[in-house]
Amino acid sequence: MANENLRDAIKTMMVESLMLKVTKEEIRDDMPLFGPEGLGLDSIDALELVVGLEKHFGVKVPNSDAAKQALATVNSLHDYVVANRP
Amino acid sequence: MIKNRNKTSLHAAIGCHRAGGADRLRHSSVPRIPTSARPGVRRVAVTAMGIISPLGHGLAATDAALRGGRDCVSEVTSFDTTKCRSKTAGQVTSLPEPTSKKEARLHRASHMMIGAMREMRGGDPAFVPDAMVIGTTSGGMSFGEEFYRAQVNGKRIRGRAALVANYPPQKAPLDSMEAVGFRAPLQIIANACASGTNAIGHAFHLIRAGLKGRVLCGGYDAISEMVYVGFDSLQASTTEKVRPFDKARTGLVLGEGAAVLALEDLESALERGAPILAEITGYGISTDNHHLTQPHPSGIGPELAMQRALDDAALTDGEVDYINAHGTATAFNDASEGAAIAKIFGARVPVSSTKAMMGHSLGAAGAIEAVFSVLAIRGGFLPPNINLNERDPAWDLDIVANTARQCRVGCVVSNSFGFGGTNASIVIEDGKTGVLAGHGREVSGRSGQPVPRDPLRANIVGIGCVTPLGKCAEETTRRIRAGERAALAKVKSPGSGRIFSAALVPPEFTAHLAREPRLRRASAISLLGAAAGNEAVAAALISRPGMKARLAVVFGVSSGGVQYTRRFYGQIAEQGAGAASPLLFPETVYNAPASHLAAMLGVDGATYTLVGDGTVGLQALEFGAQLIATGDADDVLVVAAEELDWILFDAHRAWGLVLPRKNGTDDAWPRRGVPLAEGAAAILLSREPGIARVCLGEGYTHFSKGDAAAMLGRVLADIAPEGPLDFIVSAEDDTWAGAECSRALARDFPKLRDRLLKPNCSMGECLGAGALLQAVLAVEELRRTGTQRALVAALGWNQQAAVAMIERGAQ
After folding, report:
1. Active site residue: B84, B193, B465, B741, which one?
2. Is A39 part of the contact surface with chain B (CB cutoff 8 Å)?
3. CATH class of the A3-84 domain in this structure
4. Cβ contacts (< 8 Å) between A37 and chain B: which residues?
5. Domains B8-433 and B456-808 share a fold
6. What is the pLDDT of residues B81-113, one digit of tens each?
7. Interface predicted TM-score of the whole assembly (ipTM), two decimals
């Protein structure tokens, strides 16, 4: 999967599984996912993203340290998937 | 509402109010007036209790387990936990033997409720309640799970109707009422994990305000796969021992059980020589709008609940001997609760969480822990907080670590907090030694039937609704009056393959609300409820900008967030627990819509969710009027809403309530079965006068179809109008309940036969939203036509008959 396609797939997964009220085009690659400055996700979205990463990309997030590293931006999600893909 | 009473004779009868109170008063810096001496305040006694929990069946077994600090958490046996992180729960292992074949067929939750009820009945055989308030979180969820699996697998299993019949949360309490022969109106509070404490607190306030004389209250919940996986998906449950307030705590385990308490006006209990086990003296409720599943870390929610309960009991923190904490052992709960306890009580008052012994029994927890608290008071011991290795140093608390403590216990604060930021605390005090002389005395003749009371009244200051026929009350009423019928959509069930007709609310009616950040994940029912609620509040706010100061929310539902519930369980059933969406689960909880609405309106006080049958809207209206009468709120936004899903159609068909479409057309409705409809209605009640006034007939519980019309006749007779009626809004339609309703009205009001407004025949059966919708239409029609008085009658399919009379205000 080419990198841009993977980023796109991650955004599609986010919009659908997190029920975001924005389109995937509105999500920038370097936009913080959590907090008011970014996409405004919360801890439940984080849990859902962990489920989504496994379901859609076969990638496990084993602990909260890994989660912190992976779930920062679309770019960090992308890098995490690339590094941990089976 | 509160009558003045001379307490002198009562004091003489019971001796000193506060035996051993000196010890506690030493800690108190402010001189205080004991509750009993506050003028005009009725006192509320606990005269009997019953309990079934993982700790055992009955008060004696429970008492022994509490003193011994027994760990009753074990491997889950009723479903497969292979794909879950956690594997254990507190499970009830000693269910009572059923006494009949009929009883043997009932749900596990019913058996628990029946067991608890029979024990209570044995403790005070003369107690006949005039109301019941029961808390629960998941009702008969395991029946819903089985029904879902049967539908999806296309299996033709026998007894599908029974699965559906056992699903509603009112079923287990109704079964237990039938088992002991009670027929009081029943309110089911579903405020997530605070429900049990809310039920006791509300029952206590009803009696203290003189609205009821005897109320049976409590809570129940039975472990189900869906709820178990839900907590697991949120990573709230632990893979090891439950360690409340421990530095190394890792989460909760679920529990189950049932407990009931008989509450009565102390004076009447004394007069009939009833046993007085303890006294309920305070109740506090708060809503923390921080997040649907997480408390604000400052602990403001628990702090407000506890402080309000203490104020309600006219106690200071130094007079409390023990705190039975919510203490789920999740990182968030204990941090917030610990901070709040430390702030109010410091390390002066011993604290323990009994959930370490038996897990978190959700809607039952508050009731079970209230029973524990009474046992602690009567037995002079503090139940231990087991599994504690190292207390979390974040707060300086006196935790009753690992073994029970012997000491005098005169006053307990019991906490329950839940999803949706709902927090409740109650204060329980010793029944004063002098009172106990009554124990075992011959029961006097005055114990018989409930005393008739005046119907409850409340002012209506705003209305709103969103229906398949309109986005507001005016539009909906106008189109019904014009004889229009809702356009029908087709809903295909992938389970049964059948196609059903549905009257849906156009999405554009609620689209603006879906953009609210808080409502991003909300299900349709939350959006519908918010739309109707906003209309009712907006209208009233124009004339009264300061209104929100003491606003409460009461939200009535029948099936609740059924779309997400079906989706969430579908993921579990089809792909296993690992695929369960943590994002859907919190929105499946009955009180999610009410919590969202409270957050949008900034309500920090009372927020309640009631579950019931088709009459739940009128029950919610009555509950709202009660909150004003008890002084709990000045304004109450009452909402009822329902959303549709294919599983709901299959369920109603299995029950014979709806029919599938025939030959692709159903132009004949409402004559050949009504479609189900979605929608929401809202009425803003107030202490201040408004556009109309509602008078609520006390609901009567029925147990069979034959019984139903008779009960409706009874409630119609109770509410005899003071002047001529102009019209009736009836729940009449082609269902048996609708037909019975129309028969009862034709019998009692023959002259009004041609002045009926029948919304179900214009837009379908709106389930839990239906009865409140009828009331909204009545108010709008009174306003539109300038008429004076209307009657609203609804007959639920498995619970209640309810009637409201609405009179237009002076303006």
Report:
1. B193
2. no
3. mainly alpha
4. none
5. yes
6. 999 999 999 999 989 889 999 888 888 999 999
7. 0.87
